[in-house]
Amino acid sequence: SCSSVLFFTWCGCSFHAATENMAALLRSARLLKFSPSGLLQITGTKRNGPVLGRLYSGAVSGRRAGVCSRQISPVCENARLWPYTAGCVRNYAVATEQKDEGSIAVRSKQAQQFDWALSKLDSSVRRTGRITRTLLLRIFHDVSRAGYPSGNQALLLLRSCGSLLPEVPLEERTELAHRVWEKLQELGAQYDASHYNALLKVYLQNEFKFSPTDFLAKMEAANVQPNRVTYQRLIAAYCQTGDIEGASTILGFMKNKDLPITEAVFSSLVTGHARAGDIESAKNILPVMRGAGIEPTPDTYVALLIAYAEKGDMDNLKTTLEAAESADCSLMDRDIMQVIFALAKAGHQQHIPEMIERLRHERGFVPDAMNLCLSLITQGQEDTAFLILMAFPTLQSDNFNDPNLGNFFLRHCISMDTSLEKLIRYCKGLQESSLHSSPLSFTLYCALEAKKTGTLMKLFKEQELPVRPHYFWPLLVQHGKEDNAAGVVEVMKSMQELGVSPDVETFSNYVLPVFPSREAAQQALKDGGISLDSEGFLVSEIRLLAGSNLTEVYTLCKHSDTDSAAFFLYNLMDNMTEGQVQAQEDKLRSFFNQLHTQNITISMNLFRGIKNILVSYHIPELCIVMCLTPLCVRQGIGTKVLALENRLAELKAENKPLNIVLKQIIQTLSAEENLQRALELKQQHEQDMTVGAYATLINLCCRHNNVDEALNLKRELSRMDSSIALDTSKYITLVKALALNDRVEEAVDILKEMKEKNVVMNDNSITTIFHMLNAVAAKGGAGSIRRLQDTIFTLGLAKPTANLCSPVVTAYLDSNDVPGALEAALECQKRYNHLPRIHDIIVALVERGDTDLLQKAMDFVSQERGEMIMLYDLFFAFLQTGRYREARKIIETPGLRAKPGRLQWYSEKCIVNNQMEALEQMVEMTSKLFECDRDDMYSYVLRLCKDTNNWQKAEAMWTKMQEENVIPRERTLHLLADILKSNGQEVPFEVPETWYEQDDTTQQVKPVAAAASASAPSTPKNGNVYQARLMALCKKGKVKEAYGMLKEAEKKGLALSPAPYDHVIRALLAEGSTDDAMSRVPGFKLTDVANSMFIITYSKKDQVKDALEKLKSMLQLDHVPSHLAITRLVQALGNHGDVAGIQQVESQIQSLGTRLNLSSMVFVNNTALAHIKSKASNLICGVLSIYLNFYSTSPSMSFVFRKVLEGGNDRALDKLSAMAERLANHFACYRPASDLFLQLLDMDKVEDAKFMLARCNAVAEQKEVLLSFVAQKAQVPGQVSKIKNLVGLIPDVTEKEILYSYLMKCHVLDKDLTSAKALYEQMQKEGIVVDELSLKRLAVLYRNAGETAPFPEPPETFKFYADKLREKSAKAQATAEE
């Protein structure tokens, strides 16, 4: 054709010249093949580079950059493409300057919003290969509200308006793109070539017809130069309509600009020739590519396949498929899906089954196929979409008893108004194929949700399926929220026409609350022709009148043979005070008898609620229990012993108990260290000695090193009561005294007694043991220490740590026995996996020059901890001993990289020991160390300079930092500036401001009186001193003292930076001193952190109105509240029952343009809680409407149930329980029922949980939720009983192997070796393989208990085996998916 001639003419006069010129043109394009995206590997395939290039046709994704057939077919780019499109957002953005009209806070919110939006869209596309219109519009509105849209945000929104919206018709997508373009441009977004290219891509994906010439003209008018991508996409636009002449024009532009041609252009030309009716020219493009030195790519073959599909030419289509396979250019499932889409659109549905058979169900098939189905339905090809759906791989398995494949299909059919006949056929096909358990019910649910119930209810009747009242609840909920009484009446008329009788819940929760009064409801329903004679209406009237008109309720009850009076009784009791119940007791008894004569019955739930109310009203008065305490004198430690002894004599003369006073005397004598007198009193009054007195005396004897007397007292105490145990500190003191007196075996006996009596060891006790062992080490008893250590670790009194292992090494080092110290350290490593004081040992060996032992130590460290750790140990030892040449050789070892933790450890050691030379040498030697943070290294030297007030050294360090081109952090600059200022030196740089924006950084302090200036000169030095003290006091929690010092500094006229004000205000707020904090506010601007603290404080003090005002003022100033502040405020509003307040906060937070990473459930749960707290009559309506709004995400209601259970609100619990059961039994929504069941178990209400399970058996099938509960409880000690209770109710909650592993974890957390042994034996008997992680846990439990495990302990770490199990589970899941 003429276009082909033109194309060849452009390439050159001869084929050989064409090849050379084409190669030259393509050279730059081929280089792009090595971009980062082109080197990534696609999951599930062995191909990289070229295949990835096919997945994204952006400007930087390889040789195939540009537009290909994928831009023509709207189904091709939905899946597995977003990571690359998202990643390219920043690549496309051209650096353009915008006027900074917004505040810093708005810009900060904008950046947060973009990260949030990108994360949400990225997550959606990764999971499903698409995004929803709702999510996109939400992000668009947030960006619009925030203002000042960035270029990246504009790109993100524009690119989302194409094939990523398969559920939106093509015209609406384009309209949305235009709306985004115009709105963002109106808000000041600066568009560059990347934005115009993105708009072009959207046009192509949406098949929007436009004039490429006009498009170029608009770009030129906007002073935006088109690039290669622009031209490629314009060529694709011409080819999409078969305009080869227009495409040739663009090719001419590209030739004039010396732009390279890519495979995308060839693919577009294939499409263009085919749509121009010249299929032969389209086919000849492939030989032209080969002639130009380019092999046809899968994209090219797909373009040709689509061309044949549009013609219905199956013979050539099959031939092309075979050619692609023979060319080693295998096509993926998504490529075949494009061909299927083309066949469907062209009306060649008869060939689609043959193409479906070619699908290989590769990994990722399901989301790709789902998006194809959605696109087909959107374009009116539902039948083809159903064929694809039926080709989905089977998902049934042993644990898959409730299939629901096709939910997305049915939902989209409803949204696209698919005909009723087709819906019936699809539902029947899904059910007959066992792909969906109840498709028709789900379709009805979707129709109710979309308010498109017209014919579906009738369909249910025609199919002889029950139409239940709760099917109409979503419609009634919506009318109820809008107070639309007429809409409610219309729904009731529809129910009556279908022969559905509204039940009690329908009337009580959704109908009557909409009307202002009962009479108004009766009149409106009567006018609408709705019968009021139903049982449901009668009972609902009784419910409504129960709290107001008892006479009329009784009249209604007399004419009712149901249990309707139960609701009246409950409300009656709940609305009467205790005094009213007692005063009307006779009348109530008579009323109950009358109801009994009417055969009125009530349910068990309501009976329990009424009983609880009556019991609470008849609780007998509390008896005041008099605690008879012995008379004692409380005069303090400083009281003379004589006064106590006189009191003791008086008590003895009166023949009264002496034990309390005797104990006080001994404690006083102990404080005065008077052992002799204390022993004399003990001898005189031995019969009146208490346990406390004995313990005090034993401790006093140990302090005086009177070990024999201490043991005698201990024996006497045991004879008094052998079960009595001393407290931990006194036991350790006794052990220390015995060990220091070389009575180690007796000390060991005391340790064994501690184990037998289960003496509790906390962190303080472990520290005391360390000091005790160190004291023994100071005496030089290495053998004694080793004996005590072994006993402590074997008995499990303490776990081995580096600190507890170090005293034995200390004993050898103190005696100058370095070889012994080394042997002791190596033994600790072998036995306890700790290497104590290895640095000190290596330093001693270096000083001694013992190369053999040093080599032995280094070999051992290298073997146990790695060569890099060994090199650092040697490096630090050489630095410590001043052998800097050797240290330099070590640190310059090839391949050595920085270990920040190790470098920090030695730096801190130098700072503490004031070793400036060693620290300075280390900083200098590490200048070329790989990944060494130079700012950190210099900051260590500056810290030591500050401690020693050495400003000269600090100034020298600043010079060296400049020589190294180190970019200092703000904290380093502040540190250096403080050193120089405190010594009266000039600061050679600008000190950065932090935390606050000061309006005038050069603001001067007001003049003060001369006398005040003389007494406290207002110099920077004094200001810095005050500032440092103020901040130190705040950190130590001395808030009042800091507040007083701040006022004192102000009186003296000292210049303070904003930092101390910020710290003092936050400290005052944290303490709850709101008034004092507020008094500091005038005069400067609070940070977001301080304002957030105000909100938190107000919320904690239940001052919700003040908290709301503070939030409002923050938002008006463009301040962003913290996540915690919003959460605390919403929780406080929920506890107050303030639904409107929560909605107000949610609305204000949405106005920020960012969600602050807040979960929507914060508002949902607390709104539900507020409905409960407010005791609203339409409680269920409110809570259910909240839940239904989030039904698709299956939100958890655990928070609400837990709060209700903790608050003992039986009334709300009964209603919520009934709601959860209805959701489960009628809507197949099991999450609320599961949450309630698990909350009952968690609060040890096993019987209630059992009844719940009996009423709702489907809870037992919610395996994921139940297993999550088991996993959660296995993280906390003491929860094994709850897991066992769950298993007792639901034995098959999960596989035994998984269950037993969690139980083993529980036993190990509880340190219950007996139960763990029994579980291990049970697993062996049942033939269950114990995983390595459980074996590791059990082995450690054995070791800590001082016993030997009956199996070899797995050698690796816990993390190793946990990761191994995780990988195994992931592989099993992946296999199941395939």
Automatic annotation (TrEMBL):
<dbReference type="GO" id="GO:0005739">
    <property type="term" value="C:mitochondrion"/>
</dbReference>
<protein>
    <recommendedName>
        <fullName>PROP1-like PPR domain-containing protein</fullName>
    </recommendedName>
</protein>
<dbReference type="GO" id="GO:0005634">
    <property type="term" value="C:nucleus"/>
</dbReference>
<keyword id="KW-0677">Repeat</keyword>
<keyword id="KW-0175">Coiled coil</keyword>
<dbReference type="InterPro" id="IPR033443">
    <property type="entry name" value="PROP1-like_PPR_dom"/>
</dbReference>
<feature type="repeat" description="PPR">
    <location>
        <begin position="227"/>
        <end position="261"/>
    </location>
</feature>
<dbReference type="InterPro" id="IPR002885">
    <property type="entry name" value="PPR_rpt"/>
</dbReference>
<feature type="repeat" description="PPR">
    <location>
        <begin position="262"/>
        <end position="296"/>
    </location>
</feature>
<feature type="domain" description="PROP1-like PPR">
    <location>
        <begin position="254"/>
        <end position="362"/>
    </location>
</feature>
<dbReference type="GO" id="GO:0070129">
    <property type="term" value="P:regulation of mitochondrial translation"/>
</dbReference>
<dbReference type="Pfam" id="PF01535">
    <property type="entry name" value="PPR"/>
</dbReference>
<dbReference type="InterPro" id="IPR011990">
    <property type="entry name" value="TPR-like_helical_dom_sf"/>
</dbReference>
<dbReference type="InterPro" id="IPR033490">
    <property type="entry name" value="LRP130"/>
</dbReference>
<feature type="repeat" description="PPR">
    <location>
        <begin position="1022"/>
        <end position="1056"/>
    </location>
</feature>
<dbReference type="Pfam" id="PF17177">
    <property type="entry name" value="PPR_long"/>
</dbReference>
<dbReference type="GO" id="GO:0003730">
    <property type="term" value="F:mRNA 3'-UTR binding"/>
</dbReference>
<feature type="repeat" description="PPR">
    <location>
        <begin position="727"/>
        <end position="761"/>
    </location>
</feature>
<feature type="coiled-coil region">
    <location>
        <begin position="634"/>
        <end position="688"/>
    </location>
</feature>
<feature type="repeat" description="PPR">
    <location>
        <begin position="690"/>
        <end position="724"/>
    </location>
</feature>
